Amino acid sequence: MRKYAGELIGTFFLMFTVGCCVIAAPPGVIAPLAIGAALMVMVFAGGHLSGGHYNPAVTLGAWLRGRCSMPDVFPYWVAQSIGAILASIAAQAIKGNSPVARMAISAGPAFVAEFLFTFALVYVVLNTATAKATAGNSFYGLAIGITVMVGAFAVGSVSGGAFNPAVAIGLGWIGLITWPSVALYWIAELLGGACAAWIFLSLNPEDR
């Protein structure tokens, strides 16, 4: 249960930051910087408890890579999803249910954007936090957080920059994207995570 609690708490604060940046959004570059920093500190805080996934696509990639047991996959997904929903509710409460401008999502570009940057995120997680060659490093949380920040800057205007099925649920809850779009995000992001695991194992056979 400690692992699942760690995943819920980390995902909560990641999604809480996203929600507070999306609802009555501040101008400028604040959102990507804040979201990337929130993920970084939560990875450093909870990595020793649960691996610091906070993302069903990362959990899938870690399982395929052999660093997460099969019985933990579904409970991780549940904890992450609950954390995202609770965070969305909390963000709405403190922001006073301010209106959110729903994004006009184009399915093709959004799918590609979410696939590519989820791939990048899971690839970075596996290489910095699970590879034998980088074992014991102190930069993994920074690398992971910056990957999300880069993705948010690059394609945030295309897809909202979720790169995380739990965050996609939160974005649907808040109203930034439509509920039917959430399924597209889950497919793109889980596919990106699975492909990242396959590429990681292909390039790092010693880590099998």
| Percent of sequence in beta strands | under 5%
In the CATH scheme, the class would be: Mainly Alpha
Total separate domains: 1
Assembly context of the chains = single chain
CATH superfamily caption: Glycerol uptake facilitator protein
What's the total count of β strands? 0
The percent of residues in helical segments reads over 70%
Provide an overview of this structure.
The protein is mainly α. Helices cover 75% and strands 0% of the residues. The chain contains eight helices and no strands. It has helices at residues 2-22, 30-50, 56-65, 70-94, 107-129, 140-159, 165-174, 179-203. It is globular and about 50 Å long. The model has no long low-confidence stretch (mean pLDDT 94).
Q: What attributes does this structure have?
A:
208 residues; mainly alpha; Glycerol uptake facilitator protein; 8 helices; 0% strand
Layout of secondary structure:
Blueprint: H1 2-22, H2 30-50, H3 56-65, H4 70-94, H5 107-129, H6 140-159, H7 165-174, H8 179-203
Helix pairs in contact: 1-2, 1-4, 1-7, 2-6, 3-4, 3-5, 3-8, 4-7, 5-6, 5-8, 7-8
